[in-house]
């Protein structure tokens, strides 16, 4: 099939490359010329495992092209909208201007029978509004909403073999042209038994928001338990192992620590609250306010722990932060708990040095006031406290004795509960973690 993908960020670039891998002819469109140049040259403009290989392969097959001109989408049968829906400045609501612009910009190039597929995460009600707009601007084109559930760091695998496909189509009608087109796009993964659900627009939009809200709630639940563990001397990791053995609960997404960040969970729960308010259903989601509050408290908590381990004040202390990305296997620093805590420590008078294997360039752009050092050993030199906030493998595997030789004071805070307390204490460290004694 001939496909276009509008928006080539973390979602769109991976989607475009994955669709080419499935055998389709794909054009990716983005307003950012530098990004388009990189992608067109077969280089990934951000860190995502597996993406460089897919881009290289598509160079060889010639199935994937990139452009800044929406007119180049004209020949496609199915158009995927993969642009961002960030949080509006100073508000909880999502900023829909990129989605609106993508659909309005596509309209003149659409032919009757073309399918426009929204993949961006949007407030419930957006698809119905866009469908009305398309009916006026591009008669005969059909809108479908097909949310994306990919995790950064696993995006290629999640796109090529997802847990499920959700198709939101007008009235949830199964036998429509949009369903047939999506089935053809995803023929390969569907043939291996990937389930697919056909629902109405509103349900499709809500599946995504509800899934992310549930994941955020699960993390904040275990972080709330971490707070109780801290107050009572219990161990939150052992608690998570034990409750996670109940199949109804499950162990995944029960890792306590500095909490969730990134371009999705924080802004999605806020946009969901804002939308529920507009719909008069705000009471249904007041618990998400608590989920957000628990999450933000963990960032302050790690700052407080660092102050304590430094003897009660951060003034004049050198603090090394291990990790800048919001999670490992990503260079994304949007709403990164690590950088947020690092900035708070710097404000309290510490000299903060941040290291990360992939995210330093992005971090510098957002927090220019911090010091950045790519080599872990150099970043650790003469530190009064070391704080692990993103659990990259190289930090999980640090040798306590070798690390002790580099620092001034052997103080470590494990903000992701991934180090072995006994090994670090045996090597002479004062070790503290979040929710474990
Ligand atoms: C998330 C959803 O998982 C994905 O399905 C959706 O499409 C987009 O949002 P992503 O933001 O890539 O994906 O990251 P995810 O792996 O979900 O992690 C989110 C944050 O939660 C990270 O900061 C991570 O460190 C944190 N986290 C995750 C925890 O603190 N504890 C956990 O147990 C799991």
Automatic annotation (TrEMBL):
Q: Please state the Enzyme Commission number of this protein.
A: 1.1.1.22
Please give the SUPFAM superfamilies that the UniProt record associates with this protein.
Answer: 6-phosphogluconate dehydrogenase C-terminal domain-like, NAD(P)-binding Rossmann-fold domains, UDP-glucose/GDP-mannose dehydrogenase C-terminal domain
Positions of NAD(+) binding: 30, 35, 85, 121, 152, 267, 334
* UniProt KW NAD keyword: yes
Q: Which residues form the UDP-glucose/GDP-mannose dehydrogenase C-terminal domain?
A: 320-421
Swiss-Prot/TrEMBL GO biological process terms: polysaccharide biosynthetic process; UDP-glucuronate biosynthetic process
Q: In which pathway does it act?
A: Nucleotide-sugar biosynthesis; UDP-alpha-D-glucuronate biosynthesis; UDP-alpha-D-glucuronate from UDP-alpha-D-glucose: step 1/1
**Reactions it catalyzes:** UDP-alpha-D-glucose + 2 NAD(+) + H2O = UDP-alpha-D-glucuronate + 2 NADH + 3 H(+)
Q: Recall the GO molecular function terms of this protein's record.
A: NAD binding; UDP-glucose 6-dehydrogenase activity
Query: Record keywords: Chaperone included?
Result: no
What name does the UniProt record give this protein? UDP-glucose 6-dehydrogenase
Per the UniProt record, the source organism is Arthrobacter yangruifuii
